[in-house]
Design a protein that fits this description.
Layout (H helix, E strand, L loop, with lengths): L2 H15 L4 H27 L25 H30 L11 H11 L4 H12 L1 H15 L5 E10 L11 E10 L17 H21 L3
Antiparallel strand pairs: 1-2
Helix pairs in contact: 1-2, 1-7, 2-3, 2-7, 3-4, 3-6, 3-7, 4-5, 5-6, 5-7
Amino acid sequence: MGTQDRIDRLLQKLRTSGRATPKSVLYAEGVKAKLRQARFSLKMLRDLVHLEDEPSGQGGTTGPSMLTADSLTVSEQVNFYCDCFWDFLRSALDILGQFINELHPLHISERDVDFKKVASEVKSIEPGSPLEKALDALRNHSRAFKQLENYRHCSTHRKHIYIETKKLTEEVTGSAGYYTGGSASRSVTERYLCTNPWDVKPRVNGGKRPVVEYCESLLKQIEKHVDKIVYHLP
């Protein structure tokens, strides 16, 4: 069962028991919307990440034809959708905090709610509860959450994230005596995230964080934690 299905099932349970409120429905739908937006950003990254770094929207065919990206190179579009991905995924967690605050309630002002504040409040009033443990696992023991926080904070408040673009060329040959059109070369463009967005001199460390694969893993890990949190909501 996917994260959105779990949220829908919880909403149905709340409606059946009469506990659903207009705000709880609003926040639940907000979490779902932000996760969909993160997935859409990831889809765009899949479409862009292996394209050569040439201007798009000027008669070329190197990138999706989108009015909002006409003046951006492919690499700039990759940066843009990485920013979108981190921002939407982190926003989903803050809205999840609003959802939790509404259901319990924790009596935190709506304007002051963020995910970490909600996790701290649950810990103070329900120490050791299944919900507190699920929140603590994400906030304090998840490398994925820490990395998401770093990338999102730096891209929003500090500078764009360093992404290295590599163009790899392969020479392809075959066994003699076969008609294959002879030898040929082919090029593949790869893009990698720096391993620490706080570094002034960024390092890629041998391509350990390919853009798409890394973001896919980040989304999968964060959603796994969200599933557990939603499971323990009333």
